[in-house]
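Suppose you are handed only these lines of text.
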Amino acid sequence: MKKTKKRALTALLLAAALLLAACGSAASAPKEEKHTVSSETLYVKKVENLPEDFILGMDVSSVLAEERSGVRYYDFDGTEKDLFAILAENGINMIRVRVWNDPYDSSGRGYGGGNNDIDAAVEIGRRATANGMKLLVDFHYSDFWADPGKQFAPKAWEGMEIEEKTEAAYTFTKQSLEKLREAGVDVGMVQVGNETNGALAGEKTWFNIQYIMGAGAKAVREVYPEALVAVHFANPENAESYASYAKKLDYYALDYDVFASSYYPYWHGTLENLAAVLGGIAEQYGKKVMVMETSYAFTPDDSDFSGNTISDGSAVVKNYPYTVQGQANSVRDVIETVNSIGGIGVVYWEGAWITVGTSSWEENHEKWERDGSGWASSYAAAYDPNDAGKYYGGSAVDNQAFFDAQGRAIESLKLFSLVRTGNEVPLSTDAVEDARVRLDLSADVALPDTVEAVMTDGSRQEIPVVWQLDEAKIAEMKSAAGVYEIPGEAAGRAVRCFVTMAELNFLQNGGFEDGTLDPWVITDRGGADELGIENKALNSLDGDCNLHFWGAKSGSIDFDAEQTVSNLSSGTYKFRVSIQGGDAGDAEVYAYVKLDGEVIATAPLAITWYNNWSTAEIRDIAYAEGQTLTVGVRVKCAGEGSGAWGMIDEACLNAQR
Ligand code: CA
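From them, the structure of the protein bound to calcium ion can be written out as follows.
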């Protein structure tokens, strides 16, 4: 039923597209006039030696659904314009579009994510071509999202053996590309699969995967011989996986031109790693390489009532803050990295997938369901019950677009043009980093005088800060251990100091959690059978490790464990330590404190039975700077038979309030 309807509509659209394409090519020869991009605020360091034909692409697959939902796009001066014109004027030279075979349920209701079938791709391609940009066609060979987590076969391919499926992939690719060709779309590249990390169209062996890819590539060569054929993977942080994909494709002699990778800075490792991994493949196999998807948040805030993939609300700064400038710097650096290894381009993912309304989830939900403008509609449950069927909703990347919630272009969009010329405007503060300090409960509350600022070029500077901290707050902080959030202001921006008030332990490795004895000094007088670190949470007072001892012979447990502390300030301190064990016999067990080598205080400890911890605390240790302070435990047992054994844990030297 739905197929019939859709076919009729397709024919109509196709006729319209052909007509428009014909008019477009006749009326507007390539525009000679170059749009000039300038910015007074956006800092962009020039990417040196960037070739004229370097691909600066943008995936805008959701645009038609967005427009159906009433979204309009506006230029920097507030003029409503075709999104494609805005992108072209700002340096984008290729438009990427995903293609799903049949993203509709049996009643013809769209799965969402743009409902991107080939007809949507034709319309997007036509508009890209009309604005002088090439089209990059991204075949998922699925009816909905394909990524490392899922590569479901299209419904129509269910149950097919690999031979039949290969033929279906060839036919589908060929017919789809022919539609684009007929519409006059300038296709520059075609992907045979999307993020195909070891699976594609339900196939999970490379033997079968490469058949599907090869069928797609064959169709591309026939319909668009001038276009590049790309394979696309995710997770470049796994260098070994990438090496194995490239090797497998080489082994099967797959006919392709471009080895492409997603690169989302939050998850996909460093730029250095990306360069090494892609650069290595380019060199070893003589393939072109590129970043097929990247993006970055210009704000941590959501605008469409549907959660985002990136939403860290704190002002904590990473290498790139979640600001308009941080977004531009991130993408600029990806471009520089790809260019540095001779890569051919960088494509930004879904830079125009903004909110379809600012009033309520209910209002937006209605549009997502009706128009397919959310990442998934509830109708996707029929195809993907466990993910889309449960978590359907809006855009998860509205805070990573180049347009605000009203559809106005934001300054970072200019980076795609400005990377070619550079735009090194005077530096200013872009973001300030929250401060974090740990303070001793007994000490004065002193917060840092400066916080770290990230400048518009990504460099860091210490800048002065003023904290809102009064006597009442200080009294509260000193009254109880905990984390306190103190507001402040630096360079006119809000900043916070997270203050952890705690009893600071001036001992190192006080709970033996380092897994070594260092810097404890053990003097073993009795010749214990075992005397060292035990990694066993069950036997420890806290954490995983303790100082364990055991001796079979009477008198073999006779040792001191002590630690000497330097760099303490003058004041009053307390020392606490715990022990448990058994079979100690006539034991002499105590905690002690030495000043300048002389024992000044002891406190008894008892070894009784398993898990019955005995704790000693020595208080009022008056220490003056320059003295040597040593704390320790003396253990001497006269156990017989099964031998004395035990564990020491949680030694703490704190300031005494
Ligand atoms: Ca959202």
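What can we learn from it? The CA atoms of residues 332 and 419 lie 7 Å apart. The pocket of calcium ion is lined by residues 302, 304, 306, 308, 394-396, 398 (CB under 6 Å).
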